[in-house]
Write a structure and sequence with these properties.
Blueprint (H helix, E strand, L loop, with lengths): L8 E12 L6 E12 L3 E5 L6 H8 L7 E6 L2 E2 L5 H11 E4 L11 H11 L4 H14 L15 H13 L5 E5 L7 H18 L3 E5 L2 H4 L4 E6 L2 E3 L2
Parallel strand pairs: 3-8, 3-9, 6-7, 7-8
Antiparallel strand pairs: 1-2, 1-4, 4-5, 9-10
Bound molecules: adenosine-5'-diphosphate and magnesium ion.
Magnesium ion (MG) binds next to helix 1.
């Protein structure tokens, strides 16, 4: 699905195909997918299991490469970048929210939130300030010195989101972020994502096949058998 737009495109997916395997085992996971994501979007990729949502998010997240077609992030075509440049781009410009929160158990909420900032080589004072600011944005400043094991599941997820937003990425990608959550936790996560989108204009692209999650999207791109469907 392609939209003519006046806003700056954070992500541009241009006629992307992705297949896995060879010969009789070949799977066409994405076919002729085109998509623009602008700054400030709250975009859901919807579709049944096997429709290509994770494949598309992995390509946008520079975790895998298309079989053909191009992906642009903030104007740079990913196919033209070295492995080092891609790693740097993932670190500096992309945020990921995982179903498992992937917090480091021996680090406090603050240290976990500082993690990517430390990888970026930011000075200690600056990363502390940015991490505290991010924790405040998710309502957890008062628990900054707790270890993940001393936090509830919902609070741990907030730390994971603080870690994702702390470096101010261009876009946050989340593959079925509510898949393992009960409906109350799922609602709370969506509330927080929506709040960050409304207040701070954080751009989100998330996949789901949950109708309650789709309801929250500002825009939905549907996938069926690896092809975009219009909504
Ligand atoms: N690593 C892989 N190797 C082979 N086939 C894959 C791989 N990843 C995904 N697929 C296939 O690609 C299609 C799209 O999968 P996926 O992107 O995971 O869909 P979704 O996230 O919507 O469930 C499915 O047919 C799936 O079986
Ligand atoms: Mg998936």
């Amino acid at each position: 699905m392609r939209r003519e737009t006046s806003g700056p495109a954070i992500v541009r997916v241009e006629d992307v195909y992705k297949s896995y395997g060879v010969g009789a085992g070949r799977v066409e996971a994405l076919t002729a997918v085109s998509l623009w994501v602008e700054a400030g979007e709250f975009l859901a990729l919807s579709g049944p299991s096997g429709s290509g949502k994770s494949t598309l998010l992995n390509l946008i997240g520079a975790l895998d490469t298309p079989t053909s077609g191009s992906i642009f992030l903030e104007g740079a075509v990913l196919g033209g970048l070295s492995r080092t440049a891609l790693a740097r781009l993932r670190r500096d410009r992309l945020g990921f929210i995982f179903q498992a929160y992937n917090l480091i158990p021996i680090m406090t909420a603050l240290e976990n939130t500082e993690f990517t900032l430390a990888l970026q080589g930011r000075p200690k004072q600056q990363r502390r300030e940015l991490a505290l600011e991010a924790l405040a944005q998710v309502g957890l400043a008062h628990l900054a010195l707790r270890l993940p094991g001393e936090l509830s599941g919902g609070q741990q997820q907030r730390v994971a989101i603080a870690r994702a937003i702390a470096p101010s990425p261009a876009v946050i990608l989340a593959d079925e972020p509510t898949a393992n959550l009960d409906s109350a936790s799922s609602g709370a996560l969506l509330d927080l994502m929506q709040d960050l989108n409304d207040r701070l204009n954080v751009t989100f692209v998330f996949s789901t096949h949950d109708p309650r999650v789709l309801e929250r999207a500002k825009r939905i791109v549907g996938l069926v058998d690896g092809r975009c469907t219009d909504h």
